[in-house]
Amino acid sequence: xxxxxxxxxxxxxxxxxxxxxxxxxxxxxxxxxxxxxxxxxxxxxxxxxxxxxxxxxxxxxxxxxxxxxxxxxxxxxxxxxxxxxxxxxxxxxxxxxxxxxxxxxxxxxxxxxxxxxxxxxxxxxxxxxxxxxxxxxxxxxxxxxxxxxxxxxxxxxxxxxxxxxxxxxxxxxxxxxxxxxxxxxxxxxxxxxxxxxxxxxxxxxxxxxxxxxxxxxxxxxxxxxxxxxxxxxxxxxxxxxxxx
Length: 244
Ligand code: NAP
Hints:
Layout: E1 4-7, H1 13-24, E2 28-33, H2 37-49, E3 54-58, H3 64-78, E4 83-86, H4 101-129, E5 132-137, H5 140-144, H6 150-170, E6 175-180, H7 195-203, H8 213-224, E7 235-236
Parallel strand pairs: 1-2, 1-4, 2-3, 4-5, 5-6, 6-7
């Protein structure tokens, strides 16, 4: 049976590459986006042209009503969702003392409330079917903390706590919940970092390279596969050795 995966924040970066990889592996793919409609629709079109199955659906993951509507529409098109990849995320760099209340709330709303919203809705069918995989994208900064990214690091640490607790709760329903904590990856999220900062991060990485979206997508694909059926509640960190 063809399985269905919903990937949040799949209009670009890690989410997009993950959507392409799953589509090529014969999954039905739901490409979630919030503001990048053109990119998401173009990806949908490109995958369909290749004979693959995908649909782009808008929802701000932090907004419950929009997430509910996305799941309703997704189920109408593909039926039950088997795999959820909670990838949508935002980041910002500034001194902790300069972080505004609204900025703190927004990053928590997207990076962790979004994971709550999507997981709760996906679990309805997963529990009914006694099958499911939830893969949450955390970060090395959720493991180690990053200076000038206190809010981001806190959300990504929360994703790890969420993953471990939910894995215990839904394991008896044959649902695996894992986190992926990428190292430094070449995406738009890091484009505002100065070249010397990126070079510094590269130098601190034992493998001597910045990671690619494909590195992370392959890890996600593995966790979604039956080869990973005994893995749950874990944090897998493809990071080139920057955190060991
Ligand atoms: P990116 O290129 O900035 O892409 C972020 C994606 O999230 C976009 O598709 C964006 O879509 C979507 N998004 C943002 N807010 C959203 C919302 N409210 N609702 C739905 N979608 C939303 O970032 P990335 O580097 O690929 O990051 C993907 C994930 O990996 C994030 O969780 C990030 O924290 C994590 N991560 C990244 C790195 C790295 O070095 N890049 C390292 C560790 C972890 P729209 O434009 O349509 O809103």
